[in-house]
Amino acid sequence: MDRITTVIASLNDPLITAVSLAINDKVIFIALIAILIFLFEKRTEKILKIFLVLLTAFVLASAAKEVLGLERPCDSAVAKIQCPDDFSFPSNHAALAFTLALAFINKKTYPMLMGFAILTAFSRIYLGVHTFEDVVGGLVIAPIAYQTIEIFWRNKEEKPWEKKK
Amino acid sequence: MGEEKIETGARKEAIRQLVHAIIGLFMIAIMFLLGRGYLIAFLFFVTIIGLLIINFRTTGGKFPIAEWFEKKLERNHVRFPGYGSSWYVVGIILMALVIHDQNEIAAGIFVLAVGDAASTIFGVNGTHKCPYNERKTLEGSAAFFAFSLIAFVFIGWKVIPLALIASIAESLPLPYDDNIMIPIVATAFFLLV
Fold first, then answer.
1. For the domain bounded by A26-158, which CATH number is listed?
2. In chain B, positions 141-170, which contact chain A (CB-CB < 8 Å)?
């Protein structure tokens, strides 16, 4: 395990644990993401696009987990929660949080959303269910997911099948 | 006047590609000196800070150092400041995360940094258009392949199929930036071979 993971996983603070457990809860995490989207974006089409990007990020991260099949740190070390059943790399939580932040790259709310993404990434390492590399993997998934949806979105806006020859 | 403009554009592109190659070689040096983990950590923090600067610039903020780099090195008509460099860093992180052998990572970074730079520098003056992509030339693809072969020092003969596949990927008219397309191809290659 790398030094960053070891240091963060060895921390123990009741407040950080409470926040990390809240983020770990799938329902709370998804609700939090949805609230942030509806809070900072009013355009229906953009909201739909963000949800599609998040779905793509989730699919890409889950596929990468299965393809690479890397074990979680909690498989061989003690974690603060029960070790999840799926593989480790990349972190789905981090991928979704970084993807959400990236969707607002040209908005003033971006630093706050990036803060949320970093907190999410930190919480995964803190709980002992992911390594630093897993959460960095989530960061890499974000722009790829965004670009993938962007391609389809651009084609949809341009409507190439309606172009005159 | 027109020729002067073209020359300035070509000069800017040559400097851009030189910087592109030097940064890649610097990343390889960091990895061999400090280790793969340090490279990942370094690039992670560079990405976070870089994205914050991009956000600051796109929301109208003034940042003289970033503006200087944009003026000197940024391609015209990019979607946002730092577009190409963001993909470049993400591409290197992807390779460093998924490929665990340092020599293979170095080969991937070398192909991305030097092969791609050579392709642009030689491709600009090329006269033979690529049959399936009018924006690329056969001279550029040949330069990509030839310069990528130098990565032989890292991975031996495996460099031939890697250089071939990466040069084909680079020449394809795909909607993804070359700086992420090449790392994806290199990563897939090392996972499969």
1. 1.20.144.10
2. none
Asked if B58 has any chain A CB less than 8 Å from its own CB, the reply is yes
Quick one: closest CA in A to B98, which residue? Answer: A68
pLDDT digits (tens, 9 = 90+) for B85-144: 899 999 999 999 999 999 999 999 999 999 999 998 888 888 888 888 888 899 999 999
- The CA distance from A23 to the nearest CA of chain B, in Å, is 21
Q: Determine whether the interchain pair A143/B54 forms a contact, defined as Cβ–Cβ distance below 8 Å.
A: no
Average pLDDT over residues B63-92: 83
Q: Would you tell me how many other CB atoms lie within 10 Å of the CB of residue A151?
A: 12
Instruction: Tell me which chain A residues have a C-beta less than 8 angstroms from the C-beta of B84.
Output: none
Give the list of residues 6+ apart from residue B20 with CB closer than 8 angstroms, or none.
B88, B113, B116, B117
Are residues A140 and B48, on separate chains, in Cβ contact within 8 Å?
no
This prediction has a pTM of: 0.90
Question: pLDDT tens for residues A61-112?
Answer: 999 999 999 999 998 888 889 999 999 999 999 999 999 999 999 999 999 9
Note if the bond before B81 is cis, omega within 30 degrees: no
Q: Is B130 helix (H, G, I), strand (E, B) or coil?
A: strand
